[in-house]
Amino acid sequence: VPQFIKGAQRFRSSRVCATLATILVNSAPANAHRRQAIRETWGHIAITRKLDIAVAFGIGEASDEILQRPVDWEAETFGDIFQSLVTEEYRTLPLKVLSLLEKVKYACDIPPFFIVKVDDDVFVNTYALKDLLKSLEAEAYEMKIWCLVWDGMPVMRNNHSKWSVSRERYPHDFYPKYCSGSAYVLNQRVLRGLLKQHSRENLIPFEDVYITGVLAEKVGVEHVQIGTRYAFESVSEEGIASGQTIFAHLGPEADERVEHFWNFLSWKRKENLSFDGL
C-alpha cells in the first residue's frame, strides 16, 4: 500500500517503464533545461528503448503556479515526470526521493528489475550501465545496493552546520555505510524493505545517509562498492568512452557539459562500430 499520498498522474507507463531498469532522475521544477538536455543525450528515448531502460524525472511540489505551469506542459508533452507532493527543499529531500521511488514501484504493471536513482547533474553512460545491470541480473532479488560506498563517516554535531544532526535524532558517532547520493542502483526487494522501514525511523535530513545508510542497515542491505565506475572532479572523455565511467558528476554546468560528453561517446561508438566492420 503506498505510504505517500499519490499526486496526480503525470506520466505515461510506456515512457517510464522498462523490464531491465528505470532511471529516476532527481530534479527540481525550475531545472527544465537540464531535463531537456538529458532527453536529447543519454536519456534519448530511441537509445534507452533499445537498451531496455526507461528514464523518468522526479520533482517535488512547485512553490507557485508560475513554476508549476511549465511542469504541466512538460508532463503532458513527454509523459516522463513523476511529481511528489513533498515540497522542494533540502531538509525534505529524503521524503521527496522516497515518495518518488515509491511512484516508480507502482507506475509499471511489471516493475523494472532495477531502479537507478541519479541527480540531474550526473551524466549516465547508458550503454555501460546496461552492461553492468545485465551482469547483475542474477542478483536482482538479493538484498544489495550498488554504489560508491562511504564508510566510517562521522556524525557532525556543530549546530551551525547544515550537516549537523542532534543526538536525539541520531545517537551514534558514526553513520552506517551509505551511498553517494549522486547515483545508486537498487532492486525491487530492497526498495520494498526501505519503504517499510521508513515508517519506523527518525528522519535524518540527508537523502544519501537516511535512505541508503540508516534504512538500508536496518533491513540488512549489503552495500556493493562500484566506486571505480564514478567520476567526480576529473571527468574524462576517455573514461566515459571506454565504459569505465558509468556515472559522471558534472556539477553546475551539467546542461552544457552533458552534450559534449554525449557527442564524444556517440562519435567513439560509431568509430568503434565501423572499425569492427559492423
Write a concise synopsis of the structure shown.
With 278 residues, the chain is of the alpha/beta class.
Task: Tell me about this structure.
- With 278 residues, the protein is an alpha/beta fold.
- The protein is built from 10 helices and 10 strands.
- It has a domain of 182 residues: Spore Coat Polysaccharide Biosynthesis Protein SpsA, Chain A, CATH 3.90.550.50.
- It has a 7-stranded mixed beta sheet. It has a 3-stranded mixed beta sheet with strand order 5-10-9, covered by helices on one side.
- Helix 9 links the parallel strand 9 and strand 10.
- 41% of the residues are buried.
- The model has no long low-confidence stretch (mean pLDDT 92).
- Belongs to the glycosyltransferase 31 family.
- Keywords: Glycosyltransferase, Golgi apparatus, Membrane, Signal-anchor, Transferase, Transmembrane, Transmembrane helix.
- This is Hexosyltransferase.
Overall mean pLDDT score? 92
Give the name of the CATH architecture of the domain at 13-146 and 178-225: Alpha-Beta Complex
Over the alpha carbons, how many angstroms does the gyration radius reach? Answer: 18 Å
Instruction: Compute the separation of the termini in Å.
Output: 49 Å
Query: Could you please say which CATH topology of the domain at 13-146 and 178-225 applies here?
Result: Spore Coat Polysaccharide Biosynthesis Protein SpsA, Chain A
Enzyme class: transferase
Protein name: Hexosyltransferase
GO molecular function: hexosyltransferase activity
Subcellular location: Golgi apparatus membrane
